[in-house]
Hints:
heterodimer, A: alpha/beta, Rossmann fold, 2 domains, eight-stranded mixed sheet, 12 helices, disordered N terminus, B: alpha/beta
Amino acid sequence: xxxxxxxxxxxxxxxxxxxxxxxxxxxxxxxxxxxxxxxxxxxxxxxxxxxxxxxxxxxxxxxxxxxxxxxxxxxxxxxxxxxxxxxxxxxxxxxxxxxxxxxxxxxxxxxxxxxxxxxxxxxxxxxxxxxxxxxxxxxxxxxxxxxxxxxxxxxxxxxxxxxxxxxxxxxxxxxxxxxxxxxxxxxxxxxxxxxxxxxxxxxxxxxxxxxxxxxxxxxxxxxxxxxxxxxxxxxxxxxxxxxxxxxxxxxxxxxxxxxxxxxxxxxxxxxxxxxxxxxxxxxxxxxxxxxxxxxxxxxxxxxxxxxxxxxxxxxxxxxxxxxxxxxxxxxxxxxxxxxxxxxxxxx
Amino acid sequence: xxxxxxxxxxxxxxxxxxxxxxxxxxxxxxxxxxxxxxxxxxxxxxxxxxxxxxxxxxxxxxxxxxxxxxxxxxxxxxxxxxxxxxxxxxxxxxxxxxxxxxxxxxxxxxxxxxxxxxxxxxxxxxxxxxxxxxxxxxxxxxxxxxxxxxxxxxxxxxxxxxxxxxxxxxxxxxxxxxxxxxxxxxxxxxxxxxxxxxxxxxxxxxxxxxxxxxxxxxxxxxxxxxxxxxxxxxxxxxxxxxxxxxxxxxxxxxxxxxxxxxxxxxxxxxxxxxxxxxxxxxxxxxxxxxxxxxxxxxxxxxxxxxxxxxxxxxxxxxxxxxxxxxxxxxxxxxxxxxxxxxxxxxxxxxxxxxxxxxxxxxxx
Lengths: 347, 364
């Protein structure tokens, strides 16, 4: 909890005269520690669930897989990003989206409480295959697909490999293109480079806090469940870090996918790119992955041969704008999907 | 304020000769050929008062200026402000594909701006400038007693809508700005096949029309009926007079006034946060409009710059960018635009009265 508390304390104390800062910072830090301590003491349910939700488990080709399932009707699948938390990041969206859809939010291979791959295969191919097999196992047929951050990349790859099961694709805060774009000013310039290394849990958590637009994006309940899942012996969080180092293989895979989309036009389904105006995520400091410039570059890739692409950018949104403006995000998702119902789409 | 550069270049003599040939010989020939080729049905659809799309325009006296407008639907009033320079090739007719759809939900008003379309010219020359344009729209809204409105503006009309919201925020419930972004952040625009470089100068109708045609992404963005009505309005004596006035009035002092007016509005928004209402910025991914040489007005980078201004103190700002769309996304994909506009307005109306609902149970 230390890095987060320090962030909050320093933000709060910035508004005070200099000589009061030290005192104020320690008071705020102490208060936060007390609050956090109380929340941490609250028991995390055995399924790691939050926000009154209940998780389920299913065996996906030998991998015990945790997921949330709510609502009824057309299936909508939510794929979380690469941080620690698994499907819990969608906790503010599942109920709203379930009013219209049969919502499935699944922990990816080795994330949350889904088991790590037994053969140690952390490649994109294995990640994509796991989600695909989950969809087949649940007999979902054609789905509305939503992915965030590296989960956005995963959904993008899934749509390329299995376009026949995707009705629409919604990619949130993911943009692996690198055009020469400015991202515009952010209200808070998070100090990502001050976070500990990402190979540690503290480092990953620090990044999530820094990438969120508001201090309430993630609350104590969220972090308690997160810590609970990471501490499980089966958690893949640490082993996955080592797998990330195979950058050359990942890059080659990505390039192959981009070429198929840009040159062969394999993605024909409607696509919505969703960005937070103040998102500042980069990967390893060089790749403006989810900054607006990266997302605009992603637009150029997916839009090269597909007219049915649109992008929505929301103000005062960081890397987790679907948690920061859940009503608006849900409304935009539903409106986008409704428009493309076969009866109303005109393009 | 035009989607037309205020910098009016002098035409060279060879250009002039070419234009004379064009206007006296080639253009009539082309027009004849087009008239022969176009099915009679399309021409017959052009209604009185240069109305198109099966709509019927009306007139109202706005502080002494005869003002043309379309009115359709009922309920909450929505006002649509077209782009273009005074007497340029843009009038309320640009909304012809949106008015019927939007009128299913709103009381829609699409008005010809001061000096444009069949609306009369300003009584004072000074009102050719933007403040006069803004005041004319404000007085139109007052004359028709519309109260609080949903406001939508395109291109130069997006600027008019922006200024109207800045100076009269009390009457604007939501603001939607299409294809307008007067800022210069260091952004790239992505690839586009649109290119304005071959258009004649903008102080002639052919130049204005050429820009409109080339800023559209689809061949079908504007059809024969549209152009027939457009030419009939642009060739009115009052329109010719207005174009000449704008050319004559545009000088360094005029431009300086405009820059100061714009800067003041930006400061009111960025520093004082006068715009609190929900704002949507709407853009075509391949739009290439610029104002003058250096100001990428409706290119994406300009629109992202506008986002920075509008969003500096207002969390309720969103931007929508649609692929394979030029400067007229609402004509190119009218169903999609109407849907996005309704969804935007509906969302913020639902936020005004938040409902608490019990949690659902897990499925099955």
